[in-house]
Amino acid sequence: MDFEPFALYDWLLEHEDHVKHPLAASGVKSVTLGELGVDPKVLVESDLGYGPLPAHPALRSKVASIYGFPEEKVLITLAGSEADLVSFAAMLKPGDKVVVENPTYPPLRAVPKALGMRVVLHERTWKNKFKLDLAKLDAQLKGAKLFVFTNLNNPTGVSTSPRELEELGEIARRRKCRVLVDEAFRELAFQPPPVAGLRTGWMLGPESVVRRARLAKTYMSIGQAPLEQRIALVALEKRSWLLQRAAALRDQNLSKIKPWMETHGKLRWVTPEGGPISYPRLPDGVDDLAFAQRLLREHSTLVVPGRYQGVRGHFRLGLGADPAPTPGGLEAIDAVLGTRASSKASKPASKPAAKPAPKAAAAKSMREDDLLEEHLGTPGGDV
Ligand SMILES: Cc1ncc(COP(=O)(O)O)c(C=O)c1O
Question: What are 301-324's pLDDT values in tens digits?
Fold first, then answer.
């Protein structure tokens, strides 16, 4: 199997722990076992055998009750990553046509490709505010076995509404195509972080698919770690608190980032819809990789170059990190784009909206800054 390089992961792994202003993460600042209130007895008393396989029944019941699903339609997995993997394994064969949104979380495209499926991209475009284009999708789903997308979308934070989901369901039924919705960001950012290190996830689906996925999981990982499952149960009991905490962190960041974005002369975005991520668009012609590299090199500030999730000319800006370094990160972005004086990032609300710079002038300053994309085309193209 040929797995394409996981550029997003490599980028985060190499830089995330070494920067002053980490604005790249898609999740929310993690919690400790102490903050979660895990009784130390859980650690001491835990048996290190396999435990019930593939997972503790109490965990499956808990997840089933959250969604109002029968337990037969639930499989506990090694985090969201394994839920995606065993879903592909349960529903697809090599050579099958799979339609995958773009931009997206890269494994959703790379894993079926590596498994030998024929991947066709469904472009979420800037012009269409990164929404799914259901008319176009209808045509693309002809002959497809599966459509894969994220809701909320990673990286844009754009949602697919219940009405759109119903329409999509109709189309998929007519095309005899299954749909895999990766909902890592559905409840804000409950999974992945703030408890991403627990590596506990789940999938829900028709019984026949869950049965096949369970078989695939048995071959791949056998089961869940018992100690983690006990902690995951505590985390699920404290779900409301975790979600409130995540929302508070996101809102603290947004109170700085939203007014800054909305009065920005050079950056634009599709307003993210409640999640911990956003995907601002750079001025035309600015190379997202050169921009991110320069932010890193000169200002110890980390964002994700848009191309690592499928669209050039954008960057992923996280909203769920520790809020303290955020204003400094915004000042760094302004410094690299040659936009505003550095003090403005922390008090944008009182400032009048900055007029967008004329295109030619903006392009000139970018060229001087060595950020102009000479060979890679304009934003919005795929990789
Ligand atoms: C959309 C999406 N799906 C799945 C994952 C993988 O999550 P996990 O850490 O639960 O494996 C991520 C991680 O960021 C994600 O963004």
Answer: 999 999 999 999 999 999 998 999
d(CA 23, CA 253): 10
Residue by residue, DSSP assigns 267-303 as -B-PPP-SSSEE-PBPPTTB-HHHHHHHHHHHH-EE-
| Number of other CB atoms surrounding residue 145 within 10 Å | 20
Distance (Å, rounded) from C-alpha 191 to C-alpha 186?
9
Question: How far, in Å, is the centroid of ligand 1 from the Cα of 360?
Answer: 40
Is the CB of 331 within 6 Å of ligand 1?
no
Q: Is the pLDDT of residue 382 over 50?
A: no
**Ligand 1 near 154 CB (within 6 A):** yes
User: Of all protein residues, whose CA lies closest to atom 13 belonging to ligand 1?
Assistant: 192
Token pair listed for 181? 């919705």
Nearest Cα neighbor of 81 from 89, 72, 93, 70 is 89
**Lowest mean pLDDT, pick from 6-15, 227-236, 353-362:** 353-362
pTM confidence score: 0.88
182 lines ligand 1 (CB under 6 A): yes
Ligand 1 centroid distance, CA of 324 (Å)? 25
Beta-bridged to residue 122, according to DSSP, are 101
267 C-alpha vs ligand 1 centroid, how far in Å? 27
Task: Count how many residues are written for the chain.
Answer: 383
